[in-house]
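Human: Can I borrow your eye for a moment on a structure tokenisation matter? Separate attempts, laid side by side, tell us more than any discussion would. Could you pick a protein and write out its sequence and tokenised fold? No explanation is needed for now; the record alone will do.

Assistant:
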Amino acid sequence: RITNYPTMIIQGLKNLLNKIPASENVKVFVGSSLIIGLCAVPVFTKEEKRGHDLFSQERPEAVLHSQEQAMKDFDRKAREERQ
């Protein structure tokens, strides 16, 4: 048995929005906000470390720590050479 889940979800969303006693503009705003919010759920519930997932724009924590340590070492050596 093949079911069409997207159609069922859209129909359920329409039924939910029709229960809101407001204008069409408010219903569109609420529906859009719900859909955008549902699309954002995986972003905020991920359990992977920073920078380790497939679409991450951030650098991994280990890289950041090693870069910070390298900058501290460079600064320390530069201060020693000046003195």
User: Anything to note?
Assistant: The chain is about 70% helix and 0% strand. Residues 61-82 form the longest helix (22 residues). The chain has a mean pLDDT of 82.
